Amino acid sequence: MSATPSSAYVMGHNDRERRRLAAQAAILDPVTEQLLRRAGLAPAMSVLDFGCGVGDVSIIAARLVGPSGRVRGLDIDEPALAIARQRALEQGLTNITFERTSIVDFRPETPVDATVGRLILVHMTEPLALIKTAFAALKSGGVAVFQECDFSVLHPAYPSAPLRDRVMDVFRDFFLKATRGIVGTQLYHLAIQAGFCSAECRAEYGIGGGADSPYYEWFAESLRSILPRAEALGVLRASDIEIDTLAMRLRQEAVANASCFPAPVMVGCIARKP
Predict the structure, then answer these.
(1) Are the C-beta atoms of 104 and 80 separated by less than 8 Å?
(2) How far is 16 from 120, CA to CA, in rounded Å?
(3) Cα–Cα distance for residue pair 95/146, rounded to 1 Å
(4) DSSP E strands: which ranges in the chain?
(5) Helices 215-232 & 15-39, crossing angle to 10 degrees?
(6) What percentage of the chain reaches a pLDDT higher than 90?
């Protein structure tokens, strides 16, 4: 994630956050892969991944473009990039490189076939700037793919799960105060503003449940990552949430009533350059 004046990654840069990203990927990767396939990522394509973090989306893209393709993952967090490089090495993916750079200011030496970015625009005060960067980086006819959460719409649990719904309310209130929490719904408008000739957007998200669901840890660790800033913004008091037992209590709540726990809405946008 770029550390420029136009961006501020609100989840932090530390080992715990990198582990949270890995857990998040287990839930989001299937949806992301479907999105990239719909966008037309295919063998021999060149791809830029903006805000690649520990490399989850880069790895998906690398598998889709194959050995004849190339993926460059870009991020400001060097420890995350080190993890990404090691993961690519372990998986035998020689068609990925990872670079530490300011993503908004990045310009490739030659235009690429596709750009991708997952949960990056929500952290930016000016998301249009990165979408314009993606536009400039593409060949004529290239495709930009962004996937962003949108907390303006929250799907309640069923049967009712008050603790889970309270946690979702905290995320909504925090991201609306700290960042552009409705960026998912804005993707179509932003893509057209950036110069893309068309944009296809779709909202989708997983729904978890049962004792073994990874959702409880994901929700709890995501809240832990934003807790200091959420408290500073007056969204909640840390003493009210009991963060160290939150995952356990969410699991208990879900299992007790066989409740489903919908994830935050994810909007995928496929935008094509003229």
Answers:
(1) no
(2) 18
(3) 21
(4) 46-50, 70-75, 96-100, 112-118, 138-150, 198-204, 207-208, 261-262, 265-272
(5) 110
(6) 82
pTM, 2 dp: 0.89
Question: Minimal CA–CA distance to 177: which of 136, 225, 229, 103?
Answer: 229
The amino acid that residue 149 corresponds to is C
> How is residue 181 written in tokens?
């929490």
The per-residue pLDDT for range 19-78, each reduced to its tens digit, is 777 778 889 999 999 999 999 999 999 999 999 999 999 999 999 999 999 999 999 999
Average pLDDT in the 135-140 region?
A: 98
CB atoms within 10 A of CB 274: 10
CATH homologous superfamily of domain 15-272?
Vaccinia Virus protein VP39 (3.40.50.150)
Task: Give the Cβ contact number of residue 200 at 10 Å.
Answer: 14
- Residue 211's closest CA among 156, 265, 257? 257
Output phi, psi for 105, to 5 deg: -90, 0
The full set of domain ranges for the chain reads 15-272
Q: What is the DSSP letter of 80?
A: H
d(CA 7, CA 26): 26
Residues counted in the chain: 274
